[in-house]
């Protein structure tokens, strides 16, 4: 007798392409989940990766509108569309990505007796901490959920506090992961002290605080070089700031690259710099860097410290001088870089996407 595969409905209300950590995670997550058929709700255009990551992909047609006077009407229209789809699909379970954003609200209002697991990604938690309407949305989705998944206990704590500790028993920590089979560890070991070739990758916005890395280079004793990969609202400002600090020959900006290209380039650098200063749900890029054998210098946030332990070098969030000291220490100490390379690879092995998928599937079956 064959067992019927578990059917899951999920989605993220964005164009279906690898544009952020959460989008990349979801693509990897359901592709690696055994004995499961997944329907994904997204937006056009649809990247080829998404066409192969899910059994069925449905682009939403309701016109997307951000928070503001028309938001409630937008959510109502989206809820009507999603409700019709749920009646047609009749999944065994719903995974509501981003606790409290519009699509998770629509799913929670139309799920009926179908159990919901909501999955926190971080941006919705930051939004709920600064906005009353977003806070109310998070409360509504959390209340409709049989379980709430967070990738770290630090993020789970923030959700627990935001929800007045009403849903503590529903919170479950399932660490995120990456496809470890894709990693290529750098073969060339560090052999001498000296300036470092550094890389930073991610959105160029205030929370990611790339400015901390740029300004740190102006304070270092050694002429380290930094490559910044990514796009965002602060790109032009960062470029101008680098020129003003006289770093135009030491800071290089590279436009957004496909994930495969970023991973291909990682082993060419000496270390990875992670500068987020606010909420960070997990930091998948850190694990990707470690899996490729890169020592990491990281902003000492609770969630990041939780996943890295002693496998990286911390600095004070948002403090360029603290980062500059950490970079110079690493540049001067060749043995430290060798040790960090080895422990980086060991730590990354703790976060395989197949483990994440298995744990999420087991939780889904329980609820």
Cα(first) to Cα(last) distance is 24 Å
> Which regions contain 5 or more consecutive residues with pLDDT less than 50?
none
CATH class of the largest domain: Alpha Beta
State the helical fraction.
40-55%
N-to-C series of helices and strands: EHEHEHEHEHHEHEEHEHEHEHEHEHHH
The count of domains is 2
Mind describing the biggest β-sheet? 7 strands, parallel
Structural class: alpha/beta
At CATH's second level, what is the architecture of the largest domain? 3-Layer(aba) Sandwich
> How many strands?
13
Computed over alpha carbons, the radius of gyration is 21 Å
Shape: globular
- In the CATH hierarchy, the third-tier topology of the largest domain is known as Rossmann fold
Q: Quick one: CATH superfamily of the largest domain?
A: Glycogen Phosphorylase B
Strand order of the largest sheet: 3-2-1-4-5-6-7
Number of helices: 15
The share of residues in extended strands comes to: 15-25%
Mean pLDDT: 92
Structure description:
- With 367 residues, the chain is an alpha/beta fold.
- The protein has two domains: 6-177 and 353-366, Rossmann fold (3-Layer(aba) Sandwich); 180-348, 3-Layer(aba) Sandwich (Rossmann fold), CATH 3.40.50.2000.
- The protein is built from 15 helices and 13 strands.
- The protein has a seven-stranded parallel beta sheet, with helices on both faces. Strands 10-9-8-11-12-13 form a six-stranded parallel beta sheet, sandwiched between helices.
- Strand 1, helix 1 and strand 2 (36-46) form a beta-alpha-beta unit.
- Helix 1 (21-31) packs across helix 15 and helix 5 (123-130) packs across helix 6.
- The radius of gyration is 21 Å and the shape is globular.
């Amino acid at each position: 007798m064959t067992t019927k595969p578990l059917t899951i409905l999920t989605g993220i209300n964005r164009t279906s392409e690898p544009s952020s950590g959460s989008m990349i995670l979801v693509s990897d997550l359901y592709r690696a989940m055994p004995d499961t058929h997944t329907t994904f709700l997204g937006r056009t255009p649809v990247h080829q990766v998404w066409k192969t990551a899910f059994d069925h992909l449905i682009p939403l047609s309701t016109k997307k509108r951000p928070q503001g006077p028309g938001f409630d009407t937008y959510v109502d229209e989206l809820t009507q569309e999603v409700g019709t789809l749920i009646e047609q699909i009749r999944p065994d379970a719903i995974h509501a990505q981003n606790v409290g954003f519009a699509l998770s609200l629509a799913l929670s209002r139309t799920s009926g007796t179908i159990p919901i697991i909501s999955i926190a990604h971080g941006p919705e938690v930051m939004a709920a901490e600064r906005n009353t309407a977003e806070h109310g949305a998070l409360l509504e989705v959390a209340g409709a959920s049989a379980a709430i998944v967070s990738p770290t206990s630090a993020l789970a704590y923030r959700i627990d506090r935001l929800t007045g500790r009403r849903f503590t028993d529903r919170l479950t920590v399932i660490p995120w992961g990456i496809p470890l089979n894709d990693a290529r560890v750098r073969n060339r070991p560090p052999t001498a002290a000296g300036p470092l070739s550094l890389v930073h990758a991610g959105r160029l916005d205030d929370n990611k605080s790339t400015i901390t890395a740029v300004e740190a280079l102006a304070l270092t004793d050694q002429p380290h070089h930094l490559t910044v990969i990514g796009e965002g609202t602060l790109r032009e400002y960062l470029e101008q700031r680098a020129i003003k600090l006289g770093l135009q020959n030491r800071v290089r900006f590279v436009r957004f690259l496909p994930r495969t290209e970023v991973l291909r380039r990682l082993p060419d650098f000496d270390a990875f710099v992670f500068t987020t200063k606010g909420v960070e749900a997990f930091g998948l890029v850190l694990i990707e860097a470690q899996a490729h054998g890169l020592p990491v210098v990281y902003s000492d946030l609770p969630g990041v410290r939780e996943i890295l332990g002693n496998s990286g070098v911390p600095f004070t969030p948002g403090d360029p001088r603290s980062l500059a000291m950490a970079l110079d220490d690493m540049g001067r100490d060749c043995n430290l870089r060798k040790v960090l390379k080895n422990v980086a690879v060991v730590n990354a092995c703790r976060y395989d996407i197949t483990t994440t998928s298995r744990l999420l599937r087991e939780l889904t079956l329980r609820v």
